[in-house]
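Extended Data, record Amidohydrolase family protein
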Amino acid sequence: MERIVFTNGLVFDGTGSSPEPGEVVVEGDRVVEVRSRWQDEHGEDRVIDARGCTVMPGLIESHAHLTFPSAVGHIDPGFNPPLDVSFFGRIEGLEAELARAERNAAILLDAGFTAAYSAGSLLPMPTEVILRGKIAAGAVPGPRLRAASMERDNHPVRPDGHVEPDWQGPDACRAFVREQAAMGFDSVKFLLSNDDVFIPGGSQITQYSQEEATAAGEAARECGVWLNCHAQSAESVKIAVRAGFRSIYHCTYADEEALDLLESVKDEVFVSPAPGIIYANVHEGAEFGIDRGVAEKMGSVAALEGMAAIYPEIRARGIRALPGGDYGFPNNPIGRNARDLQLFVELLGYTPLEALRAATQYGGQVMGMGDELGLLAPGYLADLLMVRGNPAQDVTILQDQRNITAIMQGGRFHKEPLIEAAAS
């Protein structure tokens, strides 16, 4: 079995320690050794020259929406709520949805993301379940995937106008979790709060009772799936924690009690602020009709201010916050995901090393693979990047794919390095 050695560069192992000169040795699909210095002799090993580069774990997206339509090079202005949702009039069926998700998965892997935790499917189809299997089988390129169900709103009127009389209540929530688990999803998504995009003041509207959320939590544990939720209001965050939700998105308006609850389960829960779309709405939406006034009506201006206020406190309390920013909209397309690391540093108060650790080690943990994914350490999966420069000094270099000189997933190169050292 071929052994591959990355040498002559820096190594960031994902733990949050500063990159240091070293070597990473890969055999099969695993890292077998991480050395603290460079060696001159490597025998018959294949040697990759990482001079001027940093070898690091692959990035992990914590808030993926691979079924959303917009990606770099493939912008779809018809999915731009609330201004334009004409996309939903063009749904062609599972085959077309899967093809787009496969395209998006390849684009995300090209951007250096070797794993992705889904924050919800766009439509009630098993698209992500099928995609997860095809990626795992090597049939299509893409990040390792944890598939999530469609987002469950607690409104009795379905998109086609049909009224579901039994949609609300604890029993309905249990049934939904069981149904999605039977379809093969890894996690089930609930919209515990509404959103200002959909209705004025929606971010402060809590849509589920504690009884409903608790019933969902009980069913999830029985079925062996995780629960994710959109939660902006303080009350929705509290309900999520008490019900055992594992990934809580946004937490934009968490109050002291909500923060105390999050801190009490900080070894079990993950939060993902998703600053990417909010920043894009405030600063980069004009081309798609989102000027400052519209951004204010959508709640994005207030949300950006709320994140900037709350996440330094989340950081100080040691609650695991992960990059991942609702990519898939026309002004925030899939493929730009690495920008979240910059926003963590410049907007939310994290250091570059903290942002990198969140996107690697914590990412492996949210995937449920913390003992074999997200670090460069013996026995861990060989999902890694070789990046020109030092991202611990400047996380923005990860946004330029030309700086990612090699991408390895499971010991195989998705992107081959341009330079190899002469045999020694």
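Summary. The first strand starts at residue 3 and ends at 11.
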